[in-house]
Design a protein that fits this description.
Layout (H helix, E strand, L loop, with lengths): L9 E3 L1 H10 L4 E4 L3 H6 L2 E2 L9 E2 L3 E2 L4 E2 L3 H11 L8 E4 L4 H12 L5 E4 L18 H4 L4 E2 L2
Parallel strand pairs: 1-8, 2-4, 2-7, 7-8
Antiparallel strand pairs: 3-9, 5-6
Length: 147
C-alpha cells in the first residue's frame, strides 16, 4: 500500500448518505469497487438525486492489488464531472473497508470532505455468509441498478 494516508474519515450511514446526496448538489458518491462488482452485484442508482456515481476501482481485478494510480485516475474523473476539492465526497465499496482507505488517500491529495459509507453497498455477512441482507445500501432498500 504505497500511497500516503493521514487524517480521519467519518463513517456515515447509508440513509444519511442518500439524504445528503439528494440535498447537496455538489456532493458526490464514489464507488471504488471493481468492474466485476459493478457488473455482477450492481451499482447505486442516483437518478433520484439527479446524479451518477463516479466509478473508479481502488483495487484492480482480478489480482485485488491497490491501483498505484488510483488518486490520479479519481482526480481526473472528478474534474470530468466538475467536482471541487471541498465537495462532500462519499466513498463506497462492498462493506466499508476499501472505501475508507480510498477516502484517506484522497484526503492526503487535498480533498477536504471525504466520508466513508458505513457498511458499504452489501454490508456484513449474515449467518449464512451472504451479504446484502444485514446492512449497507442494498439492505436499506436504496435505489440500485444492475451494472
Amino acid at each position: 500500500m504505497g500511497q500516503a494516508r493521514q487524517g480521519h474519515v467519518d463513517d456515515v450511514g447509508v440513509a444519511g448518505v442518500w439524504e445528503r446526496l439528494r440535498s447537496d448538489p455538489n456532493s458526490v458518491l464514489i464507488d471504488v469497487r471493481t468492474r466485476a462488482e459493478w457488473a455482477f452485484v450492481g451499482i447505486p442508482d442516483l437518478t433520484g438525486a439527479g446524479k451518477q456515481p463516479v466509478l473508479v476501482e481502488y483495487q484492480t481485478f482480478p489480482d485485488n492489488r491497490e491501483d498505484p494510480r488510483f488518486a490520479e485516475r479519481l482526480i481526473a474523473s472528478l474534474k470530468e464531472v466538475g467536482s471541487q476539492n471541498d465537495a462532500e465526497m462519499f466513498f463506497i465499496c462492498r462493506s466499508g473497508s476499501r472505501s475508507k482507505r480510498a477516502a484517506l488517500i484522497m484526503m492526503a491529495a487535498g480533498y477536504t470532505r471525504c466520508r466513508n459509507v458505513a457498511d458499504g453497498f452489501e454490508g456484513p455477512l449474515d449467518a449464512d455468509h451472504h451479504r446484502g441482507r444485514l446492512g449497507g445500501w442494498k439492505a436499506a432498500g436504496l435505489p440500485w441498478t444492475q451494472g
